[in-house]
Design goal:
Elements: H1 14-36, H2 43-50, H3 54-60, H4 64-88, H5 92-104, H6 115-125, H7 129-151, H8 163-186, H9 192-207
Length: 209
């Protein structure tokens, strides 16, 4: 190859390119949904935020509803990661405080549940049966993940909790996490030390037999 020739850079596998484009569209859609709401945000808004044509977006998603469902799936995966991180933590109170801090002051490059988007999807579930079903499935998966952690033997990082008790406690855990997500969107300047003290009072009771 002469010094005037440009090196040939092999193209990324199609699957990786598709994944990258989908992630780009979903990231732009999240920004638009948080800013305008699901109904007000248009494909044109998303295309502008993603810096691509609307026609290109339709190559990856047939309509806006498909984008909404893909975001719910993505947020569910992140919520499961958060639940697993709680299970691996030696201090549940501190783990929840850190989660709240991340939700209330999100960073663009951080993979995390978006509190404002959580509120949007919850509201949309009251209007769209397909979204409601997707969220219900996500709740079922999250609850099962919590139950599995609570029932796991202590030597395996679990709580050794009986199945009939683990389901009730997992429901409380989910309500607590989702409540913190809502609070992060509504009151991002909450005193973290106050939150830490408040959680420390109730967490031991929540995991006790």
């Amino acid at each position: 190859m002469s010094k005037h020739e440009k090196p040939i850079i092999p193209e990324a596998p199609l699957s990786q390119r598709v994944k990258a484009q989908r992630e780009r569209i979903l990231a732009a859609a999240q920004q638009c949904f948080v800013r305008y709401g699901f109904h007000a945000a248009s494909i044109a808004n998303i295309a502008e935020a993603a810096d691509m044509s609307a026609g290109l977006i339709y190559r990856y998603f047939p309509n806006k509803s498909a984008i909404v469902l893909a975001i719910i799936e993505q947020q569910t995966e992140i919520e499961l990661e958060d639940i697993r991180a709680l299970g691996e933590s030696t201090d549940l109170t501190e783990a929840l405080v850190e989660a709240f801090a991340h939700w209330s002051h999100p960073k663009p490059d951080m993979r995390m549940m978006n509190a404002a988007l959580f509120l949007e999807t919850s509201a949309e579930a009251t209007r769209d049966a397909q979204v409601a079903e997707a969220i219900q499935q996500a709740d079922d998966v999250g609850c099962a993940e919590f139950c599995a952690w609570l029932e796991r033997p202590p030597e395996q990082g679990g709580m050794g909790m009986a199945p009939e008790l683990s389901y009730r406690r997992s429901l409380v855990f989910l309500c607590l996490m989702e409540g913190l997500a809502v609070r992060a969107a509504r009151d991002p300047k909450m005193d973290l030390e106050l939150l830490r003290t408040s959680l420390a009072e109730v967490m031991p009771r929540l995991i006790a037999e």
